[in-house]
Amino acid sequence: MKILLSKRPIWATLIAAALSAATAVSAADKKYDFGASDTEIKLGQTVPHSGPGSLYGVVGRVGEAYFQMLNEKGGINGRKIKFFSMDDAYSAPKAVEATRRLVEQEEVLALFGSLGTAPQTAVHKYLNSKGVPQLLLNTGASKWNDPKNNKWTMAGLPLYPTEARILAKYVLSVKPNAKVAILYQNDDFGRDFLGPFKQVLADAGGNAKVVAEATYDLTDPTIDSQLINLAKSGADVFYNITTGKATSQSIRKVVELGWKPLQLLSAGSTGRSILSAAGLENAAGIVAIRYAKEVGVPRWENDPDVMAFEELRKKYLPTVDPDNTIAFAGYGQVVAMAEILRRCGDDLTRANVLKQATTLNGFHSPYMLDGVTYSYTPDDYTPMKTLFIAQFNGKDWDISDRPVSE
Length: 406
Fold this sequence. Notes:
There is one protein chain. This protein is an alpha/beta fold and 406 residues long. It folds into two domains: 40-158 and 299-374, Response regulator (Rossmann fold); 161-290 and 389-399, Rossmann fold. 41% of the residues lie in helices and 16% in strands. The protein contains twelve helices and 14 strands. The longest helix is centred in the first third of the chain and has 20 residues, at 10-29. The radius of gyration is 25 Å and the shape is globular. Residues 1-7 and 20-26 have low confidence and may be disordered.
C-alpha cells in the first residue's frame, strides 16, 4: 500500500488557508436587507411628475441622471444603483399606492427625496412600521423631526417653523408696526409656516399684527380673488406661503394690482424657474431664507459644484433649463444620498442606512452655500441650523453677510 504525499509546499498550504479564512471573514462582513446585494442597490422616491406640482418632477429626472452617471463609472462601492422615481401627482392616495409598490414589489432598500408634506404624511407611518428609511424629504414639516416616535423619517429641507420664526423676527426688525396679509396653502405645509410666524408676532407684544388671511388649494386654477381681497386689507407686508404655479401667479398678481408690500416667500418656492415664470422683475424686493447656491447666474458660474451639475445637465438632461434651481436642489440631495450609501460600505442594512443618515452632521451638499452643512444627529433631525436672509434684486439674491437662527 502506497501513501501519496502532497508535493505542495507547506507555505503554499498556509497561504491558501489564510486567504480562504480572509474570504470567509469578508463575506461575513457583508450584510444586506431587501434591495441590496453584491451587485445592486435599489432606491425609490415619489414625486409629482404630473399634476399641479409637476414642476418638481425634475427632481426625479436629476436623480435618474446622476445614478446613471455613477453606474457608468462603476456604481457605489462596486454596486450599481437601480432607482425608481414614481409619479404621485402630489396626491396622498397616489403616494400611498406608489410607496407600497416600491416597498412590497420593488423591495427597495430605502426611499429618499420624496416630495410634499401631505403625500409624505400619508405614508410615513407605514414606512416607519416597516422600518424603511424615508430620507432627505423635500418638505420641511416640523413633524419629521421626531426621532423618538418616527425614527425612519427625516426632512431634507430647513424646517418650516424655523423659516417662519426667522422671517417673523425680520419683519419686526424692519417694520415694527407691520400690518400683515397672509396667503397660505390649505394643508399641513401652509399651517406649518402660519402658526409659528403668528406666534412670534404675538409674543413680541408690539403693534405688528395680521390683518388678513386667505387660503388656496393646489387644485385652484388661480388665486386672483384671494390676492384682490388681501390687497384691499391695507397690509404693508405680504406673507406668501405658496408653492409652484400659485407662487408665480401670486407674484405677478401683486404687481398687477399695484400693491407694494414687503413680500416674504418660503425658501422652497424661490427656485429660478418659479421666479422666471412670474417675471424676474416682478419678484424684485422679495425676502426669503437662503441656504443654497443657484445655477444660471453669473455669481456661481465658476463654482466647482455648479460646474459639476452643469456638466451632468448638458450630458444627461439637455432639455432641462440651465437656470433650473429645482433641478440643482435635486442634484444636491442625490449627492447626499450617494454619500450615505458610500458610508454604509458593505453593511447595506436599513438600520445602517439610517445610522449613516443620522450622522451626516457636517456634510456639505454641493447645493448649499459655503458655511452651511447638514446638522443631523441621532437625537435631533433638524436638517440645517445655519440660514441666511436674502432679498431678490430682480436678477439675483442679495444675501446677508451673517447667518441667522431662530
